[in-house]
Amino acid sequence: MNSRRSRRGFLRSVLAAAAVVPGGTVTFAERNKRDAMLALLARGARQDYIPAAFFIHFDQAFHFGQPAVQKHLEYFRYTAMDFVKLQYERTFPQVPEIRRPEDWRNMPSYKLDFYQPVLDALKGLVKEAKREALVLVTLYSPFMCAGHTTSLPLLTGHLQENPEAVRRGLEAITGSLMLFVKECIRLGVDGFYASTQGGEAGRFADPQVFARHVKPFDLVLMNEMNRSCAFNILHVCDYNGPYADFSPYVDYPGHVVNCNPQLTSRTLAWKEIARMFNRPCMGGMERHGLIASCSAEQVGKAVTDVLREASTPFILGADCTLPNDIGWGNIRAAVAAAHAFQL
Q1: Which CATH class is domain 54-281?
Q2: What sign for the dihedral angle of Cα 29, 315, 217, 171?
Q3: What is the value of pTM for the model shown?
Q4: Where in the chain is the domain with CATH 3.20.20.210?
């Protein structure tokens, strides 16, 4: 089934339902988690509860296969979050032979068997959880995978020195990741949590390096996701540094945007981010902030304070992956506070 057509059909049914609901509004109360998350995207629908989702990396024993399936399901059900997201743990291996820009012509293009441990976990999650919730999978951008292959400083220097030579490697990486994306779609994933970097403040002296040699490879993959999947999250990742502005990303695909509102010079309001990207936002909690260090009661109060200033529609989440040692009880408290928030 074509996911894009199925999403359009679902949204048509949501909007048709509005015709028989007093006031012409659509509520989420009677829907399951899948329906509620998809209805969030319907223009004009009334959001009557705040969904929430937070992500952590599990111990290595739970990265792949059935152990990953069981741990993700355990976490999903304990926290009561509103969709399932498979963490991506198949980092590209180092290629020490890449020392100069010209060496990127030797970048391997990994075949589907490279991703099989992740795909096995995804297949299991789709089978076990798709009836009750959307199932998403994390995808790192070609730029990020190139950084894993060498190092971020080396990659940045090569792109500034000879970007055309580096493109040979980025093409190989993008072709490999496309195999993974298409197989995830074939296995029934509902969407991707598409993580991108490269546009951080000060990353490149010339911003055209990002525009010409990083962004186009992101868009190849993200356009494929949007053509085929009902619910994709664009994650503008600040793990390696903050952003001066988000303007290079506002035309990226993705049904929802997740980012850190703290820029180098100011903090954006969520309503401003929603207008800028013209789509629902996800976030509100700092990954190293109260949720990671305070009591469950304090977390609940912090969530309420955040949601009073949030845009509409909104999904509560963090600005990136939470610390591995965080107590799951704090995450459950944050999700519960979001669900209880009075709109």
Answers
A1: alpha beta
A2: negative
A3: 0.91
A4: 54-281
